[in-house]
Amino acid sequence: MSYPPARYLDETGQVSATLRAADAGPDLLIGERTQVHHLATGASTDGQFGLYRWDMAALPKGGPSGHFHRTMSESFFVLDGTVSLYDGDRWVDATSGDFLHVPPGGIHAFSNDSGAPASMLILFAPGAPREAYFASLAEIAASGRQLSDEEWLELWARHDQFPAVI
To answer: Per the confidence metrics, is the pTM higher than 0.85?
Structure first.
């Protein structure tokens, strides 16, 4: 494996970094359960990756059901608490420092079943526009709207998310 082709060709560097302070508030609230922080979006990284902090409250069990993506990998890094991660074969209670990488097509899921707050980083590569999917989830939770199975399938397909039996 080698380095990819150069994307920056000038002889000197440039001032272009972006800092997000640790005390910045969440960008999105999904129900009363999850705060989503858009640390780096696909748009802000020129499609290279998307990185999100997912802070889950100590509320009843919740998280996406088993699914896979066709166009991107997804990785999880647990920052704090215990997050149940499904690797396509088994559920694992992951704790601070545990990491799961799921390549395109890999079945996975996650949930906070611990009864305590938990926080993790979620990385998508390449950087798909996941913010729109997260915003849809937030709107559905806030409105109390109930989607039919067909509506869920359509929403998921629009955002490269396909259900898998686990």
So the answer is: yes
